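Input (structure):
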């Protein structure tokens, strides 16, 4: 507790040397308890360290969540010690590292799917405590700290400053921002979880506290023009995930050959995956997303008589563009804004849709930037 207070005092004059005392005052006087989210029975669904990957994926899918705390099992068979978070990303990274990716990439589609299915079935029996990666995107605080601590402490300590999670099982893990913090009581039970999205939603109901930054455009805030990592629709999903991992990103925009935004590939799009579905990771990323959203990606089948791009009349193209919903081709409805959109608009979208990112697109629907929950929290405290 003292260490966290010292950390906050050290940063009390602002992140990056710029301070917004209004936001800091709001977060500083707001206790963590205002965001308390309890499940029925007063506890959060947890996983045991000796449970398998297959069991973990089943629970995450049933609960429709991306992660769950992992508890050690005591002598009486009861969960009695917090070990870390089990995140879907950690599971897939552990699976990926057990593959010879170059060999898999060289296989034909059907052979690759069978290969991934077989390896997925074997990987499903791995116990969580034996995963190479565990607890990389989550941290823990004691309930007494949650009662007396402020949202400012959580934001500064966990959600903005890159750090190595105290729950990470990977000694070589580089510092990174975490997206969730679990609170546990004296019995070792996890009582509630606080996420970046919770803080963003809280700020969306206190917009006046943001001051002038809320009315600034995303372009004015420097969020437009930075080079974006992208992925093509025909890229195998497993390669797209490997790209996310190597670049330490949680999502990638899917663009066509001309750079138009088609969809978003993120770890959340794989939340329903089970070991027997690992073969689907060999599919083109656009097809996998379309299947996940119960539709069909048809662009691969659209060809003109000479084998080139489909010949469509300008009238048809203009009408389709006028009524287009970005992401429709893969079954998504993407959250997008323009470069002149205000930060408050982005904040409203993130809060209402409980999303983690909003894309910035130009008049041709080409992505020119992205705004995440982390960006919003950083901007709120910097300006």
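Output (sequence):
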């Amino acid at each position: 507790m003292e260490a966290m207070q010292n950390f906050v005092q050290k940063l009390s004059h602002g992140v990056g040397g710029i301070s917004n005392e209004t936001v800091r005052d709001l977060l500083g006087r707001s206790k963590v308890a205002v965001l308390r989210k309890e499940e029925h029975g007063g506890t959060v669904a947890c996983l045991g360290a000796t449970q398998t990957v297959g069991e973990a994926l089943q629970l995450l899918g049933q609960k429709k969540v991306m992660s769950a705390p992992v508890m050690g099992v005591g002598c009486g068979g009861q969960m009695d010690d917090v070990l870390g978070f089990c995140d879907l990303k950690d599971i897939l990274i552990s699976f990926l590292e057990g593959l010879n990716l170059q060999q898999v990439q060289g296989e034909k589609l059907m052979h690759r799917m069978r290969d991934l299915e077989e390896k997925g079935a074997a990987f499903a029996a791995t116990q969580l405590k034996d995963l190479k990666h565990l607890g990389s995107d989550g941290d823990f605080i004691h309930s007494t700290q949650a009662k007396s601590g402020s949202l400012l402490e959580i934001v500064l300590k966990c959600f903005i400053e890159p750090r190595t999670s105290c729950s990470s099982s990977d000694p070589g893990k580089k510092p990174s921002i975490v997206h969730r913090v679990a609170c546990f009581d004296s019995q070792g039970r996890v009582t509630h979880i606080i996420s970046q999205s919770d803080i963003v939603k809280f700020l969306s109901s206190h917009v006046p506290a943001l001051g002038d930054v809320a009315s600034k455009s995303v372009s004015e805030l420097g969020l437009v023009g930075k080079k974006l990592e992208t992925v093509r629709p025909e890229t195998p999903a497993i390669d797209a995930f490997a790209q996310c991992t190597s670049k330490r990103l949680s999502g990638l925009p899917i663009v066509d050959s001309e750079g138009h935004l088609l969809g978003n590939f993120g770890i959340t799009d794989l939340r329903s995956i089970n070991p027997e579905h690992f073969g689907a990771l060999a599919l083109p990323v656009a097809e996998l997303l379309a299947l996940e959203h119960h539709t069909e990606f048809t662009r691969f089948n659209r060809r003109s008589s000479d084998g080139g791009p489909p010949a469509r009349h300008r009238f048809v193209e203009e009408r389709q563009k006028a009524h287009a919903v970005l992401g429709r081709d893969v079954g998504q409805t993407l959250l997008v804004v323009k470069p002149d959109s205000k930060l408050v608009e982005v904040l409203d979208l993130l809060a209402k849709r409980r999303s983690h990112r909003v894309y910035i697109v130009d008049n041709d629907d080409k992505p020119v930037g992205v705004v995440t929950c982390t960006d919003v929290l950083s901007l709120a405290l910097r300006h």
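Notes: The radius of gyration is 22 Å. The longest strand covers residues 79-87.
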